[in-house]
C-alpha cells in the first residue's frame, strides 16, 4: 500500500471551508436580491418613475451577472468537495490542493466567470456616473481609461492562472483589486458631488424645494458602495501581506458582496424606495417630482438612471 505524506496547515484548511460557507451565505442573499430585482423591474414603476426605457438593459444585467456568479460559486463549491472528498488521498493532502488550486481547470472557470461578472458590474457603475454627469468628457475619458486598464489586468490574471501558478503568487492581483476599489470610490465621490451640486441649484431655482430626494440618493449610494469597499480593502491588505487564510475567506465572497451592493440600488430605484420617507405625500404643489442633470439647468429626467 502506497502512503503519501500530507502537509498540514489547519488555519488555511479551515479558512477555505469557512470562506466557502460564507460564500454560500452571500450567494443566497445575492440570489434573493436578483429575483427581487427582476420582479421589481417587471412591475409598473411607482410614483411615475422613469426607468421604463432602461428596464430591458437592467433585466439583462441582473440575469447575466446572476448567471456568471452562479457558475463561479458552483465551480468553487465543486472544488471544495474535491479537496476533502474526491481528491482527499492526493499527494500533499488538502493543503496542497488549496495552494495549487489554479492547476485545475474548474478553478479557472470560477476565476474567469467572476472576473467577467466584474466587467458588467463596473460597466453599470460607469453608465450611472456618465448619465448623471451628462457624458462630460472630463469624467468619461479618465473613467473609461481606468475601466480598460482593469479589463487588461483581469485578462492577464486569467492567463497567468491558466498556467497553473498559485493564486497567491499572481503579483498583479493587488493592482487589479486596487483599480476595482478605486473605480468604486471615484464613482461614489463623483455621483455624490453631482447630486449635492444639483440639490444646491434646485434650492436656488425653487424657493420651497424639498431636498430630501437628493439626500436619500446620496445616502443610498454611499451605503451600498461602503460595504464592498471595506470588504475589498481587507482583501487587498491580506493579499499584499500574504495572509492567505484571510484572503481565501474574502475571495470566495467578494463578487457576491459587490453584486449585492448594485442590486440594492436597482431595487430601491425600481420600487420607488430611493425617495425619502413621506416625500411624495408631503411634497409642496408645483415642486418637480424628479430631477435631471443637464449642463445648463436641472429639468426632469435622470434619477431613474441610477
From TrEMBL:
Q: Which UniProt keywords apply?
A: Membrane, Transmembrane, Transmembrane helix
Q: Does the keyword Transmembrane helix apply?
A: yes
Question: Which parts pass through the membrane?
Answer: 20-42, 58-77, 138-157, 177-196, 217-240, 246-267
**Full protein name:** Uncharacterized protein
Source organism per UniProt = Suillus luteus UH-Slu-Lm8-n1
Amino acid at each position: 500500500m502506497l502512503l503519501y505524506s500530507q502537509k498540514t496547515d489547519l488555519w488555511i484548511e479551515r479558512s477555505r471551508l469557512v470562506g466557502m460557507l460564507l460564500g454560500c451565505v452571500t450567494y443566497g442573499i445575492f440570489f434573493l436580491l436578483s429575483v427581487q430585482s427582476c420582479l421589481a423591474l417587471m412591475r409598473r414603476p411607482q410614483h411615475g418613475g422613469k426607468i421604463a426605457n432602461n428596464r430591458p438593459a437592467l433585466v439583462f444585467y441582473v440575469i447575466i451577472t446572476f448567471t456568471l456568479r452562479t457558475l463561479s460559486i458552483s465551480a468553487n463549491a465543486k472544488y471544495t468537495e474535491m479537496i476533502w472528498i474526491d481528491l482527499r488521498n492526493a499527494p500533499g493532502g488538502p493543503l496542497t490542493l488549496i495552494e495549487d488550486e489554479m492547476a485545475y481547470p474548474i478553478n479557472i472557470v470560477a476565476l474567469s466567470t467572476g472576473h467577467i461578472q466584474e466587467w458588467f458590474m463596473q460597466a453599470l457603475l460607469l453608465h450611472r456616473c456618465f448619465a448623471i454627469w451628462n457624458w462630460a468628457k472630463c469624467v468619461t475619458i479618465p473613467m473609461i481609461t481606468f475601466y480598460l486598464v482593469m479589463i487588461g489586468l483581469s485578462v492577464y490574471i486569467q492567463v497567468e492562472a491558466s498556467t497553473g501558478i498559485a493564486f497567491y503568487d499572481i503579483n498583479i492581483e493587488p493592482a487589479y483589486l486596487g483599480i476595482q476599489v478605486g473605480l468604486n470610490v471615484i464613482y461614489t465621490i463623483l455621483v455624490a458631488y453631482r447630486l449635492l451640486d444639483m440639490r444646491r441649484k434646485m434650492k436656488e431655482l425653487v424657493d420651497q424645494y424639498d431636498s430630501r430626494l437628493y439626500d436619500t440618493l446620496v445616502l443610498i449610494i454611499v451605503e451600498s458602495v461602503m460595504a464592498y469597499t471595506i470588504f475589498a480593502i481587507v482583501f487587498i491588505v491580506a493579499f499584499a501581506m500574504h495572509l492567505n487564510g484571510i484572503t481565501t475567506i474574502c475571495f470566495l465572497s467578494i463578487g457576491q458582496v459587490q453584486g449585492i451592493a448594485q442590486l440594492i440600488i436597482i431595487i430601491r430605484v425600481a420600487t420607488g424606495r430611493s425617495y425619502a420617507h413621506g416625500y411624495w405625500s408631503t411634497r409642496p404643489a408645483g415642486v418637480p417630482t424628479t430631477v435631471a442633470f443637464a449642463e445648463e439647468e436641472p429639468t426632469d429626467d435622470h434619477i431613474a438612471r441610477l
